[in-house]
Design a protein that fits this description.
It is a single chain. By secondary structure, the chain is mainly beta. It folds into two domains: 96 residues, Trypsin-like serine proteases (Thrombin, subunit H, Beta Barrel); 109 residues, Thrombin, subunit H, CATH 2.40.10.10. It is built from two helices and 15 strands. Strands 1, 3, 4, 5, 6, 7, 8 and 9 form an eight-stranded antiparallel beta sheet that branches. It has a six-stranded antiparallel β-barrel with strand order 10-11-12-15-14-13. It comes from Pipistrellus kuhlii (Kuhl's pipistrelle).
């Protein structure tokens, strides 16, 4: 996906976020059931603000969306409740960003290896592209309502489906490219939202997509969220990780 077509981001002030027990069509994840989930935070004064999600794909590397890049970010692994210290959290300040030269995907290199444990585990990237109708899982701390946004303090999960490419082209006729996919419910009511950018779309136990964009109002009928399709970037990911 070209960088010009990305979802407008709304930052979350984690320390003062308004809690909600349900995301858009989602529920609170079982704590640490998504051990590859990372949160990307930046500092504008105090405290930290949540910017995007990301996925741990090795003990040293994360995959996220290129539009999440900042001069530096704080990565938090092992998180569930953003306002509580629960034990498995790990914190990293990162400055090594490797965006794809044309599309909305980016690798982040951690300054040191993550400590792998039950709450912190990498997720394999998908080697093959997923088919329409495949059942998948999304997760993140993004908005739980739209257009009036509310944010959860706990990680949210939702089951969604990969949609037919023709539906994706119909929804976004001027912005659809080969290396993206649409997922959600065509009738609306379930999907990623503001603050979920860069987070994982997990299909068949592998990372199949990276949250990239969508319509201004989340989960609208006939306007599903858009994801960078990871299968198209396997060679680039491997080459970049090996080089750096």
């Amino acid at each position: 996906m070209k960088l010009g077509f990305v979802c407008a981001l709304l930052s979350l002030l984690a320390g003062n976020s308004r809690a909600d027990t349900r995301a858009i069509g989602a529920q609170e994840c079982h704590p640490n059931s998504q051990p590859w989930q990372a949160g990307l935070f930046y500092v504008t004064g105090n405290p930290y603000r949540l910017l995007c999600g990301a996925t741990l794909i090795s003990d040293r590397w994360l995959l996220t969306a290129a539009h999440c890049r900042r001069p530096y970010l704080w990565v938090r692994l092992g998180e569930h409740h953003l306002q509580k210290r629960e034990g498995p959290e790990q914190l990293f300040r990162v400055t090594d960003f490797f965006p794809h030269p044309g599309d909305d995907v980016m690798l982040i290199r951690l300054p040191r290896k993550a400590r792998l444990e039950p709450a912190v585990q990498p997720l394999n990237i998908s080697q093959t592209c997923v088919s329409p109708g495949t059942q998948c899982l999304i997760s993140g701390w993004g908005a739980v309502s739209s257009p009036i946004v509310h944010f959860p303090v706990t990680l949210q999960c939702a089951n969604i489906s990969i949609l037919e490419p023709r539906l994706c082209r119909w929804a976004y006729p001027d912005h659809i490219f080969k290396r993206i996919l649409c997922a959600g419910l065509w009738e609306g009511g379930r999907g990623s939202c503001l603050g979920d950018s860069g987070g994982p779309l997990v299909c068949n136990g592998t990372l199949a997509g990276v949250v990239s964009g969508g319509s201004g109002l989340c989960s609208r009928p006939q306007h599903p969220a858009v994801y960078s399709s990871v299968c198209h970037y396997v060679k680039w990911i491997r080459k970049t990780m090996k080089k750096h």
